[in-house]
Structures
1.
Amino acid sequence: EDQVTQSPEALRLQEGESSSLNCSYTVSGLRGLFWYRQDPGKGPEFLFTLYSAGEEKEKERLKATLTKKESFLHITAPKPEDSATYLCVPQGGKLIFGQGTELSVKP
Amino acid sequence: DTEVTQTPKHLVMGMTNKKSLKCEQHMGHRAMYWYKQKAKKPPELMFVYSYEKLSINESVPSRFSPECPNSSLLNLHLHALQPEDSALYLCASSQADRKADTQYFGPGTRLTVL
């Protein structure tokens, strides 16, 4: 059965304190893996698509990486506006949403 | 432009009411989706339309009725809902190609059933 697990469930950082969010997955026939950001009460905002192991993508303070079993979202020198829930979503036959990591960045 | 729009933003309805949620995209996408999201939970897929045909119905109760009038529009008709149906309803669209198919989400409709 396809599964995805995100850790930690919640992460509190000070502004400027870099860290990583983890996504472990078991998916048959992985077609790709997506990262989304979601603010409370709003729709998920697309960040990245990763297609194959070894691939990396960057956007501002965020960098996403992919291996055959995990994906990481690295946040460098975060700011309070980076506070949100980050969703990891691998796609096999269909999208499988992780439970999310709720990130809080304090000034 | 990667915008998906949804109306209304908020909806309050009684259990005997009939209402509709609307979703629109102008990205030329050929797949559209409805999701339901409860607080602190990830989105749950309800329906998928591909090339204007219903391709997936995730065993959703018949009080939810989807409609795809054309490739840009998606409706969700609501009738005789229950209080537990209160949630954020999200629409998404994608190109419907065979590679990993990036879905773009709308802002959602916050539904409250009294």
2.
Amino acid sequence: QSALTQPASVSGSPGQSITISCTGTSSAIGGSYLVSWYQHSPGKAPKLVIYDDIKRPSGVSVRFSGFKSGNTASLTISGLQAEDEADYYCCSFGVNIDVIFGGGTKLTVL
Amino acid sequence: VQLVQSGAEVKKPGASVKVSCKASGYTFTTYPINWVRQAPGQGLEWMGRIRVSHGMTKSSQRLQGRVTMTTDTSTNTAYMELRSLTSDDTAVYYCAKSRGVMGGSFDFWGQGTLVTVSS
């Protein structure tokens, strides 16, 4: 069982916004631990969409945003598009500790 | 930046597998290479990382003792060897480059290598 908890699934209609949460203990996500988010579609390599809690890599749509407060991080996708349908994973990094992935959330665009 | 992995493998229980990951488009020795796997129907699992500049490795507690990560800086290639395979090791294995020199998020990924463990 992952130390980072995500909802198994979320859904939304095109144009809507959705938020995926990622909750962990203080030893997994709080304080100095940095959270990143990955989009993973079947048959493809995962894609980094948010790093260092809130930063967006070059080339990633501005519709993706990240937030963290205490032991909970979240990924918000605004203006949902069909191409956003994928699995999303949060991931926590600390200095000299194991990297931890959340269990993943399946996003369905209705 | 590109990471190109070796092809699919089929192994018997108890055997070992070695997956390669050839990097291009950046200075290979600057950034760590990580290994991540996904078993069928499961989520992503971090296996470990190697700091290419000095070869220091850190593997996950779960796989410690069974996984070895190495690099060949003359060919810009990283390798991951997993020993004593069981059916639970059937998965797609990915290499991924760290975004920062000390580690951190994974900004570029290989295409994945399917390893099937079956008698």
3.
Amino acid sequence: EDKVVQSPLSLVVHEGDTVTLNCSYEVTNFRSLLWYKQEKKAPTFLFMLTSSGIEKKSGRLSSILDKKELFSILNITATQTGDSAVYLCAVVRPAGGTSYGKLTFGQGTILTVHP
Amino acid sequence: GAVVSQHPSRVICKSGTSVKIECRSLDFQATTMFWYRQFPKQSLMLMATSNEGSKATYEQGVEKDKFLINHASLTLSTLTVTSAHPEDSSFYICSARKPGQNTEAFFGQGTRLTVV
């Protein structure tokens, strides 16, 4: 059975701090790993990681994948109160015989950024 | 970018009634869509994979007679919660991915179901 574990489960920081969120996985037939940010409603996409060692960046957020050690990290620098959310990672593998993979999500990390 | 639209965003129904939730891919054809359920402060749990023109594939522990899925066209999948009970109250989200591409999954806005 596929398994995705995120840590920590919750994190409280102050504005300006840097945080690192972790995601480890055990899946058969791995395709890619996705990071999402979820506030009140549906998750919004952050990054998709397919290759090891290649950092993806978007503003203050960055992420990298290690396919040998089976984990990914999401970094947020100079955190702001608007970064407060649940951060979800998910791994993608093919669903049956199709090429449209289903996602297995981790438990999420609840990030709270205080002013 | 691709958009997935889910409707309604919020519904309140009485115990014993059925509720239908729609998920539409607006600018691409989705032969496969996924339905998730999320309890408060928990992650998304995959319920079923919806396949256009064929039966849905349900995850272990999900009652297929309770959660009816119909994927009658390339842009629409529906989830019907039959004979709803208060324990079915939850946040339901659908997602779809562009066919033939290793892209991120696009999510609908989600439906907050409350059964009273």
